Amino acid sequence: MKQSELFPKTLKTAPKDAESINHQLLVRGGFIDQLMAGSWTLLPLGFRVVQKIIGIVREEMNAVGGQEMLMPLMHPKAIWNETGRWDKAREVMYQFKDTRDKEFALSFTHEEIVMDLIRKTVKSYQDLPLSVYHFSTKFRNEPRPRSGILRGREFLMKDLYSAHTTEADMADYYEKVKKAYIRVFDRLGFNFRVIEASGGVFTDKVTHEFQVLSDGGEDTVYYCDQCDFGQNKEIFTGKKDGKCPSCKKGKIVEAKAIEVGNIFPLGTWYSERMRVYYADEKGMKKPVWFASYGIGITRILGSLVEVSHDDKGIIWSPQIAPFAVHLIELPGGDKAETIYKKLQEEGIEVLFDDRAVSAGEKFGDADLIGIPVRLVVSAKTGDRIEYKERNKADSKLLSFDEVVLLLKK
Ligand code: ATP
Ligand code: MG
Fold it and tell me: What integer is the mean pLDDT of 231-239?
């Protein structure tokens, strides 16, 4: 991609109302644009990062047998009435009437919709277990959407749903998905904790939140500095700096965190209310065991910026960067165009700064956009290329082949 053609240009300053780091840097860098409170366009650069995040999540969901599909976002009132959530979730749900006075809601989650699908398709124990997921927009009437793209009124989520014949089978699969989530957040490079939270009205079991440790977070979590113990503020009864109630050795740490995922062993709460049954081996009708698993895709975009930036801009890691390299042409660097083509032939994703602007502006934009590797070609570099990593101060002069070798490592 040539930077002279990239839409839109970067901004020198952040919008006045931008309080959080992710809001400031993602808007300035041209990754996202705000339409209104809690509502964002993913611009070409932002959408590239989101596609990388989706790619990682998709691989791990497929690896635990999840089958990808796509469900509608506009739902009839009748389905939400079956569980009573039309009234109970009124505050977060966008509900409306069409011109014929029929009532609908915009999706804030999909449990009822999946349950309806299972009711129509699953007859016997032979049709179970099943695991389906999609990436789609969720709408939530958040009272005060702030924190940039971390909290939207419209945002992208991956939600997976699994259905089982027994509680034991559900619990087994729940553990598998928990491990898949850990792989996802490891691959994204997060410093995160798996945190126990209450299941609310849906289950007496604990649910698990995946919390990225970050001062930019709205949540407060408590975790042990030595074992896996962790609980959110709502259920933790101990004290910070106190002894860990689980291993009895470690100390409890209190920290700000961003919830990037949440998994729920829902049991039969939904199947009993929606009459979702399967026939067992003896032909007896039994309620389906059900669980749901969410990941906040666009929230991850913001979280990555919250935890990886400096005073000049964003610092992407290679696995999620919008491009692998930022190639910069300075006066006298007329080989840059050839290098651009050759890098593309090697299958490397390049952003090529071919603009007629000052070196200072090019370097400033490169630091702001945060692509992990910067390559400079100028009169000074001769037949070599200056190679610099975004998170390091020093640079080196390399041949084209040496650059490719490093990039493919
Ligand atoms: P929160 O407590 O932050 O409001 P939640 O617990 O209501 O989130 P869940 O219903 O668990 O959210 O949704 C699954 C995931 O979707 C969350 O873990 C989070 O990553 C993401 N998410 C939830 N609400 C939003 C939002 N308003 N904007 C962006 N992402 C969100
Ligand atoms: Mg949650």
Answer: 96
